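Exam revision sheet. Question 4 asks you to relate a sequence to its structure. Input first:
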Amino acid sequence: MLARTVAFLREIGLEVRFEPITGKTVNPGLTIDRGVLVVDESRLRYPGDLLHEAGHLAILTSEARLATGGNVGRGGEELAAIAWSYAAALHLGIDPSVVFHADGYRGGGAAIAEGYASGSDMGVPLLVWFGMCGDRRGPDHPFPQMRHWINPSDRAVSG
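Answer key, structure tokens:
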């Protein structure tokens, strides 16, 4: 699964680098350094976390992506990254429970995955606004289908 995920991320234009990570990170074995996903395979606890962190980068403008590192995501950015990672998991044929693991998302991972499967739009309006997908009810790339995996606009979440 890790190899398939990394191949997909590189295909859509995100850079992934494998190297040891020293110090504490939000997700064990995973961090972001100037727009690059850095993976320490020996410490990576949940491979599905890579999709979530990639979602944080994918929703940013190219300029913001290059300036991003460490702990990312707040408010709307977090919600959009969650929605993006759900769509990416489905696209890759990965069970969303791998991304939304039992102790992830403050123990609410299963509820998030179930919510999307039942039609939740949490974070989706931002993906629509960025031009990355269409509304669930629309005919053009309705979520969880994606028109663009990387934010094609100059729109970004602020604050």
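Marking note for examiners. The longest helix spans residues 76-92.
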